[in-house]
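Weekly structure sync, notes
Attendees: PL (lead), two postdocs, one rotation student
Agenda item 3: pending single-chain targets
PL asked that the sequence for the first pending target be pasted directly into the notes so everyone works from the same version. It is reproduced below exactly as submitted, 275 residues in total.
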Amino acid sequence: MTDPVQLLKERQVARGSELSSFGCTRKHLAAAADRGEIRRIRPGVYASWTASPDVVAAAAHGGALTCAKALRAQGVWTLDDDMQLHVWLGAGGRSHPHAPCDCVAHYRPGPMRLGIADVEQALVQAFACYGDELFFAAYESAWNKGLIGSAARARIRATLPRSAEWLLDFARADAQSGLESILRLRLHLMGIALTCQVKIPDVGRVDFVIEGRIILEADGEQNHGSTEQRHRDRWRDAAASRQGYETLRFDYALIIHHWAMVAAAILAALARAHA
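Predicted structure, written out during the meeting:
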């Protein structure tokens, strides 16, 4: 018999029926739970004590973690704002409300297994929940990180409504952050074309350039929060100014929560460039 503790460390959560294929009988699982070696979430469902609380809560509800939290757990960029738990229950799974429980249930066909929905499935479900923008940023992030190959992208295209095809056509594999993706998408909808990932002598690579005059940088906290990095950013901005560029920097809060200010700043810079 394989050790149920080790099996659950690898899976985080599992049904007893899944573990039985490795020789873990109900008696063995019950004994391990009674000894406190593993955790019984509900009848027939067990978890490792090191399992993610979100994964445990999803399993308690009867399914797999999906949407934004599932994507983030697998390294995909998502917005920081959505904290609600989304649970994939398969095509006709049974939900098990628990305390506390504000889970959003998803009933979609497919081979659902307790744990975390794979990136492809989570992206499709995130589109249905959050719409174009979050999906687009997460899709580009997953593509950039090599988490969705050509076959997965083709299946996603076939699954999404035809109205979403333009998003997939507009997506790129070289987007460095979700903030860049959202900025580029919003400006595209405003009719503003960007040149992406431009290398400028004595400045280095910048996120975007508009009309060869305006540099746009989307500054994530993780990449621009240190004193050393802020100094380097100011040095780059000065070097760019020496060459006739105007640099506009926007952080997460501005792009996500104060877009009107960002859009107005960019339009004003364009007006100055045309003056």
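Discussion points:
- The chain has a mean pLDDT of 90.
- The chain has 14 helices and eleven strands.
Action: rotation student to compare against the earlier draft before next sync.
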